[in-house]
Amino acid sequence: MKQSFTLTEKLYLFGIAIVILAVNPNTYDPFNVTRFTLLTIFAALILILVFSKTNLRTLGYFRPIVVISLLFIGQMILVLLYGQAPLQQQLYGVFGRNLGFITYVSLVLIMIYGIVLSSKLIVGGFQTAIISIGVLSLFYSLLQWIGLDPFPWVTSFPTPIFGFFGNPNFNSAFLGMTAGALLAVIANPESSRKNKILSGCYIAFSLIIILASNSIQGILVFGVLFLLCLNIIFFKIETIKKFRFPILLIGISALVLAILDTLQKVPWTPVLYKGSITQRGDLWRGAIEMASNYPMFGVGLDSYVDFHQRSRDSVAVSHSWVNELTNDAHNIYLNLLATGGIPLFLIYIALIFLTFYYSYKIFNQTKGLDYNFLMIFLLWFGYLIQAIISINYISLAVIGWASGGLIIGYSKIFNQNIVAAEKIPKSTIKGSWIGLKLVVGLVLGCIIGLPPTNNDLKMYNALSTGKIALLEQVVNFSPKNVTYLNRVAELFELNNLDQQALTIARICTENFPNSAFAWSVIYRSPTVDEAERNNAKQKILEINPYAKL
User: Fold this and answer.
1) Residue ranges per domain, the chain?
2) Who contacts 228 (Cβ-Cβ below 8 Å, separation ≥6)?
3) Which single residue of 95, 115, 213, 521 could bond 505 by disulfide (Cβ 3.0 to 4.6 Å)?
4) Angle (nearest 5°) at CA 123 between 118 and 126
């Protein structure tokens, strides 16, 4: 009898897809804030649904993961209390990122529910959903490449190709991850000829789009996944095991050469190196400096930007991008280290190692090679690779955390106790409480997640109309946003509305004392006295010791 998806499984797959794809061109931030809101609503639904006897019984077999997840959330709560950043910023994250407490709790819930739901059916459904999104993104990227994008995006990127991700690097990484995962379909001897051809076409078109977008992230991710897939196959298939060590040596050599090329340590002209690699090195050293100064709780969740300028070394200051302000370390691991402290970093690493442990158990207990599992493992590993050189973009993070949960839960197949516990008649699963639970989750998610999108819509409207009265309302937004306040203060200052600019800047520094721009507006204002100007100067130099005033 053919299995079908339950209501909760459909909800899980739909929720993941909609968070990854959601775009709203009529907001100030068309990509991140809408996905943040939908992610929060999705996670609230999961929070309500996960509390059932069956689900909790299943999670009881995965106590190490549950404990690590609770420690992760617990450490973040401590960071909220003892970190260096304002509470509202840590809760919701900074503009354009939204990687605060609410987002990470949502990702943990997505992983946990993935463990609960995981089965061969749901893993297959998840893979189909992600590849379908990949096909849509490929098509949209092609339209952007040939100049037929229906939306008149205004971007600073040298290429118009960014798919549904708003950034060529994120789009490139996503295509690299999905193309790498489809290597499992091509390698699977049981895959139909049609599926192999379609997978090959997807991989080829993905690599073409990646190269056209001039982003190396997708190439690096796909290259690593290709080598990993090759080695797993040679280590698992009995008939070719004798070649596993030469293949492993080739893989390691290729990886080392790629790293050396990226670092400009090769005798030939580097192929993979880009100027942004050097810039990332500056950001990574800054993240380590933040962690050394605030080892227990970091500088505050998603608050790298507040300490970026004061944490730079002399090498970073000597580069041409010295005046660029960055809000992320461009390395997920180091960003967590800097913003959440050493404990949060170690807990996150433990979570990754536990996922590797469950992956090893599944590979080891499977006779031959489970290509269905290999595909989701490659997808998850691709997320880990792009995390080394990129930001924890919400769409990619959802894929990474969901695939991690599905990987861990996949091990249920080999545990007869769990299988027996989950064999509950469907009549008991379809309880009358499911509708009420969904309503409660929806309301809770909207209460938490809608305010940032509502504020973003107001900001977009205010900027579009240029009405002073609407722009001044930014001080009444809840939660307040340092980017909005600074943008309005800048507009007022440029239009010689000095008193209005000063008022906004003062409110900004009260709520976000680490905003160098707001302090600089006060410093430049012709209406402040000498004492306030000197105080502003002192604050600017605290935040940015290399500032030229």
Assistant:
1) 466-543
2) 251, 378, 381
3) 521
4) 115
- Which residue is it, tokens 């722009």? 471
pLDDT at 549: 76
Q: Yes or no: say if 214 and 159 are a contact pair by the CB < 8 Å rule.
A: yes
The two structure tokens encoding residue 323: 């005046």
Q: What is the 3-state secondary structure (H, E, C) of 226-274?
A: HHHHHHHHHHHCHHHHHHHHHHHHHHHHHHHHHHHHHCCCCCCCCCCCC
Residue with tokens 């229906």: 150
CB 400 within 8 A of CB 376: no
Q: How far is CA 157 from CA 162, 167, 488, in A?
A: 9, 8, 24
Q: What's the CA gap between 42 and 38, in Å, rounded?
A: 6
Mean pLDDT over each residue of the chain, to the nearest integer: 89
How many Å apart are CA 162 and CA 213, to the nearest integer? 8
Tell me what percent of the residues of the chain surpass a pLDDT of 90.
70
pLDDT digits (tens, 9 = 90+) for 245-285: 776 677 677 667 666 666 666 666 666 656 567 788 889 99
Dist. CA 307–CA 325, nearest whole Å: 10
Token look-up 């790293």 returns: 259
252 in Cβ contact with 259 (< 8 Å):
no
What is the distance in angstroms between the CA of the first residue and the CA of the last residue of the chain?
75
Q: What is the pLDDT of residue 331?
A: 94
CA distance 174 to 499: 46
Per-residue pLDDT tens over the stretch 418-437? 555 555 444 444 555 777 88
Q: How far is CA 376 from CA 34, 91, 125, 400, in A?
A: 27, 31, 11, 10
Cα–Cα separations (whole angstroms), residue 274 to 217, 263, 281, 509: 11, 9, 12, 37
Segment 293-322 mean pLDDT: 88
Residue 316: pLDDT band (50, 70, 90) is: confident
In angstroms, rounded to a whole number, what is the distance separating the alpha carbons of residues 527 and 539? 18
Q: Which among 86, 15, 38 is positioned nearest to 306, based on CA atoms?
A: 86
Q: Which two tokens stand for residue 354?
A: 């536990």
Task: State how far the Cα of 174 lies from the Cα of 386, in Å rounded to an integer.
Answer: 9
In this predicted structure, what is the pLDDT of residue 427?
A: 40
Contacts of 512 (CB under 8 A, 6+ apart): 86, 89, 306, 480, 482, 485, 518
320-356 tens-digit pLDDT: 666 778 889 999 999 999 999 999 999 999 999 999 9
Q: Which two tokens stand for residue 460?
A: 């977009």
In this structure, CATH architecture of domain 466-543: Alpha Horseshoe (1.25)
Rounded Cα–Cα distance for residues 28 and 464 (Å): 10
pTM of the model: 0.92
Nearest to 392 by CA among 67, 160, 103: 103
What is the distance of C-alpha 364 from the center of its chain? 30
